[in-house]
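Posting this for the archive.
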Amino acid sequence: MITVSLCMIVKNEEETIARCLESVKNLVDEIIIVDTGSTDKTKEIVSQFTDRIIDFTWIDDFSAARNFSFQHATMDYIFWLDADDVLLEDDRKKFSTLKDTLDPNVDSVTMIYSLATDENGMVTTSLRRNRLVKRKNNFRWHGAVHEYLEVLGNILNSDITVTHKPLHQHHDSERNLRIYEKRLARGEEFLPRDLFYYANELLDHQYYERAIEYYEKFLETKKGWVEYNISACGKLADCFDHLGDQESALQYIYKSFEYDTPRAEFCCRLGYHFLNKKQYRMAAFWYKLATQLEKPVESWGLLNHACWTWLPHLQLCVCYSQLGNHVLAYAHNEIARKHLPDCPSILHNKRFLESIL
């Protein structure tokens, strides 16, 4: 059986840190907490779980803090979490099994990262990240903001899910943007990844014109990861939608097809575009295509699960109903109902269509 070090960086996490550590305390062999300047009860709470609490002077660099935390690990593998992450019961069992059975030749284990759920607890967005890495490989974090862990070698894609459960949307909504602005002011040259994430921050702060500028700079480098390229197209479409420029938004939706085969998220975007224009046949074409695509099992990009499951079927119900094909409308509504059996809109459609049929 392998041994595991949990390494975390924290600051003012008194509301969530106990929940996080409670969910994993029996799965790891040591807990290392690097504190970057807490002024609340974070350290006091953490001390109930470990005495390995190490201070780190914050230098506007998340990778520096994470690499510092990794340096203090002593076990075979390093597992990392954020304070508002948890392992749910099923995933704790899977993690325990993994720990008992993992081939020591594995260099990194990826896990699903559940970013958001609906009111029924169903995962709505997720992606995959390297979570458990062999300590002796000395894998390093890169990037001052939106850091990533660079790994090589034998990688195992597990079915374990780390669940993100924030109590608030942002700890400091201005922090990341401030870091990027300081770097620009110093004259730093941004790598493609920096351009992408800086544009994300600008979009989050509703600076749409500047966000467009940096997303386009990112795409112009032609050096971006394919998932970031596709994401940038969607975010550019969002920016232009906010600015009322639907034609430019449409161009970037289509541009996403240059980087890979169509994704359900973009097919649903096109379906929505034509549905709003009451072009129901065109809308149905794109929604139907979304239903025919195979949902990625091990996607590293952000997945909007609704677009790969119930949403296009619900919208096809609307399209076919408008086109007078109530049999097809009912059939697609029933498929949507299998995914969301208690959805009021789907149940309303069912009653309405049954009254016609």
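The chain has a mean pLDDT of 96. The chain has three domains: 4-164, 172-260, 270-357.
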